[in-house]
């Protein structure tokens, strides 16, 4: 298969591209190399993909000739976007709408024209649920985002579903629950915690540290993305991908202390607007539709992220 991956220089995109190439597929990757975090990290992610079967197009989804590119592939995995819950307030909101809504609409217009796609995968987010009333939260729950980021991810998800309903774009949206593992973005919790632990510097904990996340290992996310493009049958329009072990930030820090063998210095700071108290997703639908279930628990996943970081 020839697969288009948008956001290919990022954390999840580069991991998905590497796995697809390992399996013998061709990958066309698009990335604008935005400056949300150190661009040299994205260049390093890309260098791991420099091999036969990989073509890189550097550019913005809001500007590239997408119909031509989408028309030449069998499947699209749309991971490009502006992530980050806590930084989505204020003047930067326009960055979020352009990257998460406008770019998604433009890509879907191209997918509508390219009649041969076997799948269009959209990277949605647990943040569309906001402060959920029921755990584990399933896909029937009414979305109620709690951050501007969540609003833009939900808008992208709705666009993806309505292009499926109106034009038959064979789309599926996966709601990823806080993803971690090798290449995790430097603004995310595990990345920051492990870096600070290594350096012996204080670790910033927002709020009381009792907030809970259903952390999901990146290889498990990639396995679901690949399963969805390998399957030719119809899939539900929206599915959760949740790691299956909801743990608190304080529990994570205990694990990080054991894995690194360091005593941690914690610096408690006020909770940040937009951060929810708890996420916990049901993956029953992904299990029945794709035979998918998470395989990596948080303790072994953190050990793998630490081993990767130590080898850099
Ligand atoms: P990332 O920032 O590492 O990767 C996103 C990539 O998209 C970046 O390399 C960026 O340069 C690129 N990009 C942004 N806007 C673009 C544009 N207009 N045109 C072309 N490229 C553009 O982020 P990630 O953590 O790998 O997340 C990937 C996707 O998954 C995002 O859409 C994010 O919202 C979603 N998601 C991530 C998580 C998580 O925990 N990491 C959870 C839920 C959903
Ligand atoms: C993550 C991603 O960053 C989003 O892009 C994604 O959409 C979202 O998951 C999701 O699942 O939908 P988040 O859950 O905030 O968002 O992930 P982390 O940045 O890893 O934070 C996890 C928890 O650690 C949060 O409660 C946060 O408050 C806390 N944290 C983070 C700290 O206490 N200190 C830090 O320095 C960083």
TrEMBL record:
Keyword NAD in annotation: yes
Domain NAD-dependent epimerase/dehydratase: 3-241
UniProt keywords, alphabetically: NAD
Highest taxon above the source species: Bacteria
Gene3D superfamilies: NAD(P)-binding Rossmann-like Domain
InterPro entries: Epimerase_deHydtase, NAD(P)-bd_dom_sf
PANTHER family to which the protein is assigned, alphabetical: EPIMERASE-RELATED
Name of the protein in its database record: UDP-glucose 4-epimerase
Organism encoding this protein: Homoserinimonas hongtaonis
Lineage: Bacteria, Bacillati, Actinomycetota, Actinomycetes, Micrococcales
């Amino acid at each position: 298969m020839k697969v288009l991956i948008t956001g290919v220089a990022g954390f999840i995109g580069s991991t998905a591209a590497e796995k697809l190439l390992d399996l013998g597929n061709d990958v066309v990757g698009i990335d604008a190399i935005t400056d949300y975090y150190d661009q040299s990290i994205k260049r390093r992610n890309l260098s791991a993909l420099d091999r036969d079967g990989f073509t890189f197009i550097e550019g913005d989804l809001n500007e590239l000739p997408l119909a031509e590119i989408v028309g030449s592939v069998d499947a699209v995995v749309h991971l490009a976007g502006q992530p980050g819950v806590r930084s989505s307030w204020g003047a930067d909101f326009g960055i979020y709408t352009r990257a998460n809504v406008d770019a998604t609409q433009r890509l879907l217009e191209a997918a509508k024209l390219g009649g041969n796609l076997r799948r269009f995968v959209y990277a949605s987010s647990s943040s569309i649920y906001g402060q959920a009333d029921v755990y584990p939260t399933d896909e029937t729950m009414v979305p109620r985002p709690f951050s501007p980021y969540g609003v833009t991810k939900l808008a992208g998800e709705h666009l993806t579903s309505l292009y499926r309903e109106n034009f038959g774009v064979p789309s599926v949206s996966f709601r990823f629950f806080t993803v971690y593992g090798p290449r995790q973005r430097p603004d995310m919790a595990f990345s920051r915690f492990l870096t600070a632990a290594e350096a012996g510097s204080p670790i910033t904990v927002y709020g009381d540290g009792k907030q809970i996340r259903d952390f999901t290992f990146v290889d498990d996310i990639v396995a679901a993305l690949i399963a969805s493009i390998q399957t030719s049958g119809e899939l539900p329009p929206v599915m959760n991908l949740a790691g299956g072990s909801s743990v608190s930030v304080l529990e994570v820090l205990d694990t990080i202390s054991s894995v690194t063998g360091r005593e941690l210095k914690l610096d408690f700071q006020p909770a940040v607007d937009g951060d929810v108290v708890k996420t916990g997703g049901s993956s029953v639908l992904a299990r029945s539709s794709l035979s998918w279930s998470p395989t990596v628990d948080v303790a072994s996943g953190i050990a793998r992220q630490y081993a990767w970081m130590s080898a850099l």
